[in-house]
Amino acid sequence: MGGRDRRRQGPLVTRRLSNATRETLPDGVARPAYDGRAVSPGIVHIGLGAFHRAHQAVAIDDCLAAGERDWGIVAASLRSAETRDALAPQDGLYTLSVRDGAAERLRVVGSIGEILVAPEDPARLLAALTRPATRLVTLTVTEKAYLRAGDGSLDIDHADLRADLAQPQRPKTVLGFLARALAERLSAGTPPFTVLSCDNLPENGTTLRRLLVAYAGLVDPALGDRIAADVAFPCCMVDRIVPATTEEDRDRIASALGLEDRWPVTTEPFSQWVVEEAFPLGRPGWERAGVTMVDDVRPFEEMKLRLLNGAHSAIAYLGLLAGHETVAAAFGDVGIRRFVGSLWEQAIPTLPDGLDPYVYTNELARRFDNTALKHRTAQIATDGSQKLPQRIVAPALAALAKGAPADRLMTVVAAWTAACEARGRSLPAGHFSDPLDARLATIAERGAGAAETVAAVFDAAGFAAGRAERPRLEALAAEALGLLRVRGVAGLLAEGA
Ligand code: CS2
After folding, report:
1. How many CA atoms lie within 13 A of 405 on its CB side?
2. Which atom of ligand 1 sits closest to the CA of residue 383?
3. Is the C-beta atom of 267 inside 6 A of ligand 1?
4. Hey, is 293 helix, strand or coil?
5. Which of 452, 453, 454 lies closest to 474, judged by CA?
6. Each residue of 246-282: pLDDT tens digit?
């Protein structure tokens, strides 16, 4: 994880990547073709994880390299100071490592000009958000930061949200920051920024708008109305597989650079960004970075959530139960690979027409087979309660509505339940985490039969809440969980063959 307190052993690269040392980079390493000091910020990005640094920040780096000067990024972490501590001494520079099989390309990215840590100084992030030059706010805060209740509405019982409602001038949550900053801008007569969610949520912009309007309406009903009327929330689909950086990555990259980089990011060659065209205050010329601008993102988003992310969750939970540490290892397991094929067969008929899902799944298989990416099954397994509704439950509901089968889809819910139960038994207790962990632990301890367990899990996660199809979905998940408990993952996979 973090690079703060590491004691490096072995071959010593002592100089650090920074503006002062970047000219010493070897020829094969690409670097920013512009002077970061000549760039002014136009974007505030919230959620400074590896995904942002391997995706949106790279597209902006392309735009800056092409001569755009006023779309630099101020990036903020909502929780920890780790990334800022690693990157600030490097003037925000970091290395992007693109890996495929034995090949690796290195590129130093320079689009992040300033890094803020929200809990240290919320006023500073608010100041960045309210500056008139900030015309765009992008988010990668993960599904759970949207504070959705099981039924998708705003979770008004969430402790952080209650804290923000009590002290809206000193926010903690992303909704709190956006609402406060928009309130300040509107009262100062500054046009509202555009908000671009880059998280894996269905209709991410529309979902964020609904939640933010609900939150802001609790702070001040007039603010909720103004946000609903005056702020643009384009939807977008983002796609790039970004495994967490390892110590081995750090060491390999330092040797190649001849400079230490405390927090490089590794990724695959594939990258896709499809964005709805709705930017009243303008936007970077993303087309030059290969971004696709469209009127309606939904077909792209549903295909990606249901085929890529749905398969990822299946690979993660079945893979964990079968003892596989990485996606490539799990997908190399014939039973799991076959399962994913049959999962795709059930998800594909639920997709809107227009795109070719078979071209997409062929490409996905190639991407999952990339053994250079050490993409851990435990990384994807995290936050299943937040991910499965759009990846698995939504296509299952759509399949049933068409009278089509959904048993493979519901097997993923069973595998999630079994993987949660396996923690502290065949898997280490904290192997992955979930916001519902306390409730999931209580359910696991009860040791009830499959049907009762599945009903409790559906209740806790809000799966198919209020839907007439819920008993049918529960029955399918319970059948798969029963099989998993009795025959294990190998038995379950053999059964579906
Ligand atoms: C993954 C995604 O961790 C997960 O849940 O399914 O992060 C996935 O790698 C990205 O969405 C790929 O674009």
Report:
1. 8
2. 5
3. no
4. strand
5. 454
6. 999 999 999 999 999 999 999 999 999 999 999 999 9
